[in-house]
Amino acid sequence: MPENRGLGGTESPQRWWRDGVLYQIYPRSFQDSNGDGIGDLPGIISRLDHLNDGTPSSLGVDGIWLSPFYRSPMKDFGYDVADYCDVDPIFGSLADFDRLLSEAHRRGIHVIVDLVPNHTSDQHPWFEAARSSRGDPKRDWYRWADPRPGGGPPNNWRSVFRRVGSAWTLDRRTGQYYLHHFLPEQPDLNWWNEAVREAMDGVMRFWLDRGVDGFRVDVAHGLVRPRDLRNNPPFQVRGWPRLRNWDLEEVHEIHRRWRKLLDSYDGDRMAVGEVNPRGLARLVRYYGNDDELQLSFNFGFLEQPWRAEAFRSIVERWEALLPPVSWPDYTLSNHDRSRAVTRYGEARAGVAAMLLLTLRGTPFLYYGEEIGMTDVVIPRDRIVDIDGRDPERTPMQWDATPNGGFTSGGPWLPMGDFARRNVRGQRDDPASLLSLYRRLVWLRKRSVALRRGKYRSIRAPRGVFAYAREAEGEQVLVALNFTRSPLRVALGSGSARVLVATDHSRDGDSIELERVHLPRDAGVTIQADQRTTMSQKTP
Ligand code: NOJ
């Protein structure tokens, strides 16, 4: 595997989003401050010390990504934006946002906000104008098409949400269909139109001028759809064919435009894209020649079975594909997918944490992951999301008081097992998952090898994923046992010291690298000294 010697190396300038750990907050579910059962911006402010109070008794994250808090009818819980430049009253006000930003910055926490450029809400004034008549000046800000001859939608393009079906909805008043790759209440903007591009530049400037550190870009491989409306090839038995309406060449122009805009600001403003094309090779293209997105989410881990070889393969492919100037990232959970602890089981949460926080690449944590929150079974009469994503969006579990300290009212989604699993209960327990997360995050801050070092795989028996991180003479070894049996692994020769073990009682132990003992479902991060010989990397 090629070693990465480019800007990803230790010589690169400090970039907070490369060196740091990022944390996703779903504002509806983090902390409610006014008893309406829905989280809000003042609530987030009140919990910032959990994220980083400057000491290792906090989690120590360097940045937060806030899912949308803009004005919205909430058909897709904020991903249907009716005003990009205002805060929905459910979440607070612009003044609250400014306060959140300065309180976060004061603690060294950067803030990125969600940019939702693929579509607006159908209640956005742009769409209200566009649908008012065929001749309206904003008509062309969205995609319109006549019914196909004989009636029905213009082509076979489908919404991402299975229950929606066709990506087209008929606007009866003007007799044409409009395009929407999500809900009918989320009409797609027409990215061929320069006025749309300029309007979205204005949105970005609005938030950058307020001081945000960047954006998470929703559906970043969507945006531009073919001008012609030819059908997608039909579904084949071997899976979906390449779809014509996603991941177009022309979308890269937009990302280059946004990169220029970000670079025109001082500070280190960045964008991380939700990019979900077919395969890592196409994902890499969204970094451009270091002139597009600074990061594209690698969702590979979200789709792997719990096997060391599956995770190793994602890492090795990503390392091999990324050009030297580009920087990897990893994530185990988000607001659209089942939580990692539910996918893999509670016993594996420690190994998953160690993996995420010791690889070369920016780790993105999802709120609640640090205490091992699981998906919550939602009774039928409490289901609110069109696409079955309520289980992974339930409120943060702060303590064992009623409603887990999240709200004094009725929570918008049922609470999980807060009495058993909560921040307060784990904070002072050195054996807790939260303590493990904190030890790993703070270790990463101290270790140049973990933050910036090169990655290389180490040969290991089946079921173990082992690797080295090296920089400036510092060598850190990581060995993760994905199996349910204890194993012995040879990581090299000589003795070394355990920096962090998933079983905290081993922290600080001296061990022989020829025979590293790994209990079931356990991992160790080891400090090797320069005289230590490491095993050969895998070919
Ligand atoms: C991706 C977001 O993560 C998801 O929650 C949303 O429903 C769609 N984009 C549409 O904005």
Gist of the model:
The protein has 14 helices and 23 strands.
What layout of secondary structure does this protein have?
Elements: H1 16-19, E1 22-25, H2 41-46, H3 48-51, E2 63-66, E3 70-71, E4 83-87, H4 94-106, E5 110-115, H5 125-130, E6 144-145, E7 168-171, E8 176-179, H6 194-210, E9 214-217, H7 251-263, E10 270-273, H8 280-284, E11 295-296, H9 308-321, E12 329-331, H10 340-344, H11 349-358, E13 362-366, H12 423-427, H13 433-446, H14 448-452, E14 454-458, E15 464-471, E16 474-481, E17 487-489, E18 492-493, E19 495-501, E20 510-512, E21 516-518, E22 523-528, E23 533-534
Parallel strand pairs: 1-2, 1-13, 2-5, 5-9, 9-10, 10-11, 12-13
Antiparallel strand pairs: 3-4, 6-8, 7-8, 14-15, 15-16, 16-22, 17-21, 18-23, 19-20, 19-22
The structure holds 1-deoxynojirimycin (NOJ).
Overall number of strands: 23
What CATH first level of the largest domain would be assigned? Answer: Alpha Beta
Oligomer kind: single chain
**Structural class computed from helices and strand pairing:** alpha/beta
- What overall geometry do the principal axes of the alpha carbons give? globular
Distinct small molecules = 1-deoxynojirimycin
Largest sheet: 8 strands, parallel
Unreliable residue stretches: 1-9
CATH architecture designation of the largest domain: Alpha-Beta Barrel
Radius of gyration of CA atoms, rounded to a whole number: 24 Å
Mean pLDDT: 95
Number of domains: 3
The order of strands across the largest sheet is 11-10-9-5-2-1-13-12
Span between termini: 7 Å
- What's the CATH H-level homologous superfamily of the largest domain? Glycosidases
Percent in helix = 10-25%
Q: How many helix segments?
A: 14
Task: Kindly report the CATH topology of the largest domain.
Answer: TIM Barrel
- The portion of residues forming beta strands comes to 15-25%
